[in-house]
Amino acid sequence: MFRNVAELVKLAQEKQKQIADIMIEQEMSVTGRTKEEIFRLMERNLSVMEQAVERGINGVHSHSGLTGGDAVKLQNYIKKGQFLSGETMLDAVSKAVATNEVNAAMGTICATPTAGSAGVVPGTLFAVKNKLNPTHEQMVKYLFTAGAFGFVVANNASISGAAGGCQAEVGSAAGMAAAAIVEMAGGTPNQCAEAMAISLKNMLGLVCDPVAGLVEVPCVKRNAMGAANAMVAADMALAGITSRIPCDEVIEAMFKIGQSMPVTLRETGQGGLAATPTGRKLETKIFGKPLK
Q1: Residue 19: CA atoms inside 13 Å, Cβ hemisphere, count?
Q2: What was the pLDDT predicted at 291?
Q3: Is position 157 within any domain?
Q4: pTM score, two decimals?
């Protein structure tokens, strides 16, 4: 039904439907399942996400000892009421961190679009839930909206850190979340696309450099920044701000940037933060010897 963002937005406008509805129709066409079956499957994903957020904000730690407990610190900081950024944004950041900490602790998460970027979409969803008071159906449709944009990226660029750097993982996740926030807040399909473009283009060039080859450092904190990015991009789009570069061209640019990245900066643990003196010390501490 749609291959790119332009076609997605056009379909939603012509049918006078939300992006989420177009994605559901596409799933029905591709899988042969009924709308009810597809909705139930996404409800399960929502449940897994909610459980991961709750587990994370109650405190988890990874087996390596590299990550854990930061979501709790953020929630405690919010409760003090002395934060500098907005409460909803910090809540999104903490819940994004929570989800990714659960992933690092070998817990169950939903890859959105990958395990390493799993915190951004649920983190923002369960933060804006407190602001917008959506129905259960709207929360499920949030995931379909995010999925529609993720579908476009996966089929026109990449969602793999090994192929395109972290811009393809956390960058894509931030764009997906930004679009979904806009739709939940009552924005138009075109504003969803603008939010995706604004968010993604501000994460272009983000490298994938996991310390000790583990999806923990800097991955967890990049999910935090991805969530914050998504929130700001959504607000900008809802304010009427547009991206001078169309969304599909931003996605294409991301793909080309990923192709030009050195192998050392694409999830190999050979460059970037992984190659710093501290990164190498942590690698040796965890595995007893350097991996490279």
Answers
A1: 37
A2: 67
A3: yes
A4: 0.97
